[in-house]
Give the backbone structure.
Amino acid sequence: MSDIKMIEGGVCAAKGFTANGVHCGVRKSRTKRDLALILSDRDAAAAAVYTTNLVKGAPLTVTKKHLENGVARAVICNSGNANTCNANGIEIAETTCAALGEKLGISPDDVVVASTGVIGEPMSAEPIIGGMDGLIAGLGDHNEYAAEAIMTTDTKIKSVAVSFEIGGVECKMGGISKGSGMIHPNMATMLVFITTDCAVSSEMLGRALKSDVSETFNMISIDGDTSTNDMVTVLANGAAGNKLIDSDGGDFDTFMKALNTVTVALCRMIAADGEGATKLLECSVTGAKDLQTAKTVAKSVVCSSLTKAAMFGADANWGRVLCAIGYSGADVDVTKIGVSFESKAGEIEVCRNGSGVPFSEELAKAILSEDEILIKVSLMDGEFSSTAWGCDLTYDYVRINGDYRT
Amino acid sequence: MSDIKMIEGGVCAAKGFTANGVHCGVRKSRTKRDLALILSDRDAAAAAVYTTNLVKGAPLTVTKKHLENGVARAVICNSGNANTCNANGIEIAETTCAALGEKLGISPDDVVVASTGVIGEPMSAEPIIGGMDGLIAGLGDHNEYAAEAIMTTDTKIKSVAVSFEIGGVECKMGGISKGSGMIHPNMATMLVFITTDCAVSSEMLGRALKSDVSETFNMISIDGDTSTNDMVTVLANGAAGNKLIDSDGGDFDTFMKALNTVTVALCRMIAADGEGATKLLECSVTGAKDLQTAKTVAKSVVCSSLTKAAMFGADANWGRVLCAIGYSGADVDVTKIGVSFESKAGEIEVCRNGSGVPFSEELAKAILSEDEILIKVSLMDGEFSSTAWGCDLTYDYVRINGDYRT
């Protein structure tokens, strides 16, 4: 399997992709771009996964229909309004795709549309359509503009790209994402757009994405609230010229590894930039009797408000980790559990066989004062492992989400 | 069915029950009592429900064994240490029961033992046993002392009592509880001790408690973290002299109604005094197609961090309520959902048929600025209803739980 190398360029790294972001006016404040476009110069195999929330943003419904044939050319995304719980939401999303299709000379069915922002606020397609000419005119190597335009209360853009080889041909893949937070806080919508010039069939692309997401984006939790607008899409336009990946094998494995490198990097960025977060929490579970047990335990730990608040306070309160494992619903033997905390400052064991072990509070405090904390849980019950990502629970999370909408 | 009247006296209201609370030294600070005792002057039918957390406090294991025969005489409970994840936890709990049994001249098997506080801290039975003589000597009409002794970071004691009639005989029932919070924050253990002089068989008492808890205490959420030490117990000593309730019928219905009055009052007190809480949130769901749907939706709303933070900020951000319904897992038709907010300041409709309706932001702000908020959700899909209780998410929740343990 070929090496995966980190490179620059985000969603514009792969051949044949350009991007841009402008301020069109969905957000009244002109301090930030609010409309992003990613374009492939040729048809791309496309796949997406969507929120499981029964309340779904209108753009998701429209995108799902457009991706039925597994092909797309463009992604358009606004921030500032989620276009959700609006009576005319579908119409707005379809009008947007139709206008973009006409201006780009592509089929509206080849447009992926997404929105993030306040739910249930009246919305109009007018600013989006009004902004399209400038958006298209400025298309180029503008990954940063697109990454900024999809942000809400994110404090930094989230972008990554890698290169890898398929059959001796260099391929590239890049992604941008927005994490949790909004200027008008409403819900922590997660949006991820990935592009690659690797030639891969829609079917294999869909399989790769679905399989990867269950181990990556579905293992992030900022606050346990599943947004109505979450969506992850990947467009693969084949511009690299590799032999098409249309079945299992070494090439597909390499592609999966590249995809996983991109998605894990974005997961870590999203979790670290969770609303109000000061720390990235990573929980690695080993020794589980099956994969689901490992995942359930890892996610329960990073979701626990008490654990998250303890990490904010640099408090080695491992009882909260045990507690979160205990109520996770996973079938574990609590008398076997071991827990350690690790960061750049070192590693410390705090619990063995389900009971506390003496440890230096001073070292624990130093370890938990770093901005990336690894919580290591050993279940000593099998061979399976999993990782989940989250962030600490801080005053600022409450401030951001307690602020009045207007 | 007889009327249920609110009376004074808490767990000492019912005939034959005395209580006390002292400082014994499990908590080093002498600012608060830390050991509570409730005694019945005769054998009482007893029932309990316990946390579903796989990590269970040692006292729960011991109490469960003691209540196998459905009979108890006394309840002893310390705060300051949860006696959980300690290698010698069972021994400490059993030693405590043995010592108390000897001093009171009752069987150790008739003692209910409970603990709340930090997990995994080394503990000794010594201060508890040392405090017993004073605890027993001071037994009397001291409901407040007992209620204080089981508190951790609770800001007020939680006590309620009612009187009701069974077959023309006046019976009384009272309860105390502790809610979420600890001086050494660790987990939001909920403990509830209920006493009644009503004559009721162990079997019917167990049925009543189990049925009631599923509608009351299991419908509270402070932070989604299920403690290792949660426990609700009820002792019924028959001192009132009513005809024994040993089957279904009008008397059992009255008993259930009295029990429900006590438990709902305690639920509201626990939720309103959640860690850092400034507001009691009550979510009432009506029009559900079945009971489980109503319960799932109500609980998802009061558990949503985003909804809780919005309520703290008096923000009528109903999209968060819709979102929490959508990811609850309940099978609902989102296009039918209606949402209103209500408090002493009035009521306001914010969502109908799953979409927003125009409303006065000023009135909404006034309604949500009160300290008891009712979130009314209509599913328009059937006849079932349910209520859940919670509290807002505040800076103080983070402060309390981010503080270092020592």
